[in-house]
Fold this sequence. Notes:
Layout: E1 2-6, H1 13-23, E2 30-34, E3 39-41, E4 50-52, E5 64-67, H2 73-77, H3 80-90, E6 95-99, H4 102-108, E7 116-117, H5 124-129, E8 133-134, E9 139-142, E10 145-148, H6 153-165, H7 168-177, H8 196-207
Parallel strand pairs: 1-2, 1-5, 5-6, 6-10, 7-8
Antiparallel strand pairs: 3-4, 9-10
Helix pairs in contact: 1-6, 6-7
Amino acid sequence: MDIVILLFDRFEPLDAVGPYEILAHLPGAAVRFVAPEPGLVRDVLGALPVHVPTRYSEVERCDVLLIPGGAGSRTVASDPEFLDWVRRVHSGTRFTTSVCTGALVLAAAGLLNGLTATTHWGAVAELESYGALYTPERVVRHDRIITSAGVSSGIDMAIRLAALLSDRTTAQAIQLHTEYDPQPPFDTGSVAKAPAEVIERARALARGVPRPGLPPAGARG
């Protein structure tokens, strides 16, 4: 089982690493990372350089294609050569998936036209500008296409995908092995539940606005 995860400059680390941690435990699975160009790729926060030896064009088919989000997703979403590759590979996948603003890439490739899809709450207008219909669900599946919302939702998506690729018991065992049992200290994980001041602070973090006593944050999304 060949699972390909795209990385690009300014990718959101948990978008890729969370699903990788889950999917790499699937029996018979091999996970590969690819990039627009071989070499060092930096995450959106700037402190997690990853060496990726494989250019995406070297991959002609795979069972699963996973595209994470991050500020750099807009760059690949505007690259016609890359979008052609996404469409070609998608034609032969068992599942084509996205996390966070990775959905913008799928949408830009025309894979989400007229479909409900999810992404980070800060990218709703961008997603719909490509012809997708946003829904605030955490994970959305249409046959072979699965989109997931912001950052941490990629873990939820990967566990559901693990069940589809193997069986329910295996997926549950992976969830147990990784001790994925969320008990967040605050109930502000969605815009539907967060107060206005928290939403504004989150927007400031995404813009990289300096906060008292803290250095500027990297651009997110």
